[in-house]
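Async update (no meeting this week)

Hi team, since we skipped the sync, here's where things stand on the single-chain job. The sequence we agreed to prioritize is pasted below, unchanged from the tracker. I ran it this morning and attached the output directly underneath so nobody has to dig for it. Comments welcome in thread, and please keep replies under the output.
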Amino acid sequence: MKEALREFFGFGGYQRTPDGYMSAKHLIFVSSLMVVMIALAVLLGLAMRKKDAKTKNRVLIAAAIIMDLLEIFKIVLLCFRENDPMHWRLNLPLFLCSIQLIALPVAAFTRGRLKEAALDFVLIFGVLGAVMGTYFAGQNYAAYPVFGFDNVASGLTHVIAGFSAIYIGVSGMASLKKKNIPITFGILLFFCGAAFAANAIIDYNYMFLRRGDGTPYDVFYNLVGGNPVLYPMIVIGLFLLYITVFYLVSAPIKRKR
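Output:
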């Protein structure tokens, strides 16, 4: 039992060979997470749809607390596992999907336009981040066993964000007001700037602003030959374009309903 736990958490290094990116185990695992994520979000969203805002918000509070506690546990464990108290620098919430570690609590615990913009941000990027961080996380599933702590913790964190996004949409919590677009842009650009600075300081690849690392961003990285200016501009531009299109498509649908 003790050895099984050590192997699951990766202490001393995983003895199992990684199952592989897009392997059967990878696809079955993340697909199972997705099914549970969608089912819970839809069922709870429908159940809460006619409830008052405070009652609806309790689900987001629970999701935010669970997701952040899981991430804190992961960071502490990895610092011990790697015998490096500074290992947390490689686990900052500066990937598009991990921004939800901050955006979701903001959406759950604040009020006014900031809450509206944060709810929109979680709605817009939650499912996208969940898909990108599970099905397309080539950098993880090529390096670690599917049923190892690294991939299990990452998968749970991503699907909690995806769950929250679907729940926000189904329960009717999103505002999708055009006047909140600048705030949503600001949230994204702030984290992009922080990621860019962190990459320069600790030589990392937050927000995949330096290279694709086995993700679909590799398409754009290869397209511009890894140009250190054009590539991050394209990535950030795609983020902003995605936000704009999401608002333009979703806002009229919400008004009509």
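Quick observations from my side:
The chain has a mean pLDDT of 91.
The CA atoms of residues 18 and 41 lie 31 Å apart.
Reply here if anything looks off.
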